[in-house]
Amino acid sequence: MFPLTHLLIHPAALTLWDKTSGTWINVATILGGTLIGLVLTESLPDRMQRIITQGLGLLTLFLGVTLAGSLLKVKAGQIDGVIIGLLAIVLGGLLGEWWRIETQLQKVGNWLRDLVKGGGNFTEGFVAASLLFCIGPLAILGSLNNGLSGDHALLSIKSAMDGLASIALSSSYGIGVGFSSIAILLYQGGLSLCAGFLAQVLPDPANAPQVLLTSGVGGLMIMGLGLNLLKITQLSIAAFLPALLLAPVFCTIAQRLG
């Protein structure tokens, strides 16, 4: 996992920019990467655009497998992390289907598409990029670190990765990828601003079983995104989003049951 830096500055002394600087950097790299991808789309033939997307799909699949391995590192009470992850992903998926989260996200994407008169695969790009950029430990740990100490080092690393991914995604899906920056702003910015409260609940987020389980479940979802990008199948990844909330809840319950 990625270590958090020690808190050197009292949170009350930090400005709004200090707490959210990494998120704004992330937004900028996504927008910049999208712009580059759109330019490349005009100059590269379809077969090369397809290769770029396949390369991103393979890397996404690898990252997902790596993150999913976090499930093997956790044992809450007498229950293995894999079992908790399974319960979270299945029940979370059922809830997501019941609440029609995938449909709601697509509606948001369609609304944005109509608002800016986007075309092509706008909604698909918005949904895929939003999920890819928001799921994962760097988003959580980087936002907490930024909000607690003003240090945006972890989010800067994530920003570079997201910027490169934006180039590949936008070359296939178009301008919708850039609008995923709205999801990043709301999600990471919100985590950074709530970092003080979350630090009281999880004094050591980098090693907390709840975070490891959330990362592991997120890894399973990222694996699904990789399969979608490779067009091996078409999974409803957004439907599994409730699993990211259920994983730490189930972990806490298992710990208390002993």
Automatic annotation (TrEMBL):
The keyword Membrane applies. It holds the Pfam family DUF554. Keywords: Membrane, Transmembrane, Transmembrane helix. InterPro entries: DUF554 (IPR007563). The chain crosses the membrane at residues 24-44, 56-76, 82-101, 122-144, 164-187, 208-229, 235-254. PANTHER family: INNER MEMBRANE PROTEIN, INNER MEMBRANE PROTEIN-RELATED. This is DUF554 domain-containing protein. It comes from Phormidesmis priestleyi ULC007.
